[in-house]
Amino acid sequence: MTDNPRAPRTATSRRNMLFGTAAAGAALLAAGCTSNENNDDSKESAGADVADSKPGKKVTIGFAGPQADHGWLNAITTQAKNRAEKYQDVTLEATEGSNDNATQVGQIETLINKKVDVLVVLPADGKALTQVGLKAMRAGIPVVNLDRIFSSQQAYRCWIGGDNYGMGLNAGHYIGEQLKDKKNAKVVELAGIDSLELTQERTKGFDDALKNYPNIKKVARQAAEFTVESGQKKMSQLLQAQSSFDALWNHDDDQGVGAERAIKQAGRDEFLMVGGAGSKRVMQAIKDDDSVVKATVLYPPTMAASAIDLARALGQGKGIAGMAEYEIPAHVTLYSAVVTKKNVDEYLPIGFT
């Protein structure tokens, strides 16, 4: 680390900044490699050296994600590739997505051997891929960890992802506000894969929000598997078990396709439905306002485009526009906005198919 945070770094100092010892590495990732020394007036007026759209130092970014077998995951890959194409100074080396941990590790090791400048990784399993993240960091290749987080902060330079707890919280508050004047209101929840921490966080956020509305009770919950088939099956079970309720929160718009089929087959329309993630199909249904679907809570796949922006800034040794710091942040958590008929036109362009 140098006294002047904008001074060029040697290969050795770059490696030390990225990895270092356990204590030093955590400190650098949390605070960035900056110094309060030599902050004269000229630097304060000039501000940090930030990445912008103008061509700069050429950067090769390696991108590795899971298999795009789900609408949201496909959108992640598309967002990353489209963003990289907008920059004349970025070359994207993208792997073929895989849900097999060993295969994905091998793909990332290939990118490490190619000596890419920066890695963007959405691991199929964050815990299982932590070691390869550490390997990249030790090799002096900064890692932007996308969404599913590695189990060690030393395995990445920056994490960017969605707010699963906030997603549930905002869904719960939206439903609560719609039902706050209804006596003995009932809600049901169609969750995702229960073994995933993200599903548990979404449910916790939802339950915590409902605590603010004593007139509302969650009467049933089913866990699906983020697929159309599971959504239809589990929604059918909820409908059979509950003769009536006032609101449904479905964690995932892809499994919501099946849920909506089950709802139509049952001829039920006495409740409002809130989706999750932000598919274009659901946004259009909200706009048309001709079904039970009234809102969806975003889990924006645009995070992959932002990950490319962060990786490019890292590769060029720059900060981010709009922030005074010389380094990019260690963590970026995206907001889970609620899309309704009032604001759907604003969000339709980022809806995924």
TrEMBL record:
Main location: other
Subcellular location: Cell envelope
Annotated spans, Disordered: 33-55
Positions of the Periplasmic binding protein domain: 61-318
The UniProt record lists the keyword Zinc: no
Pfam families given in the database record: Peripla_BP_4
Keyword terms, alphabetized: Signal
Biased composition (Basic and acidic residues): 40-55
Superkingdom assignment: Bacteria
Protein family: Belongs to the bacterial solute-binding protein 2 family.
Protein name: Substrate-binding domain-containing protein
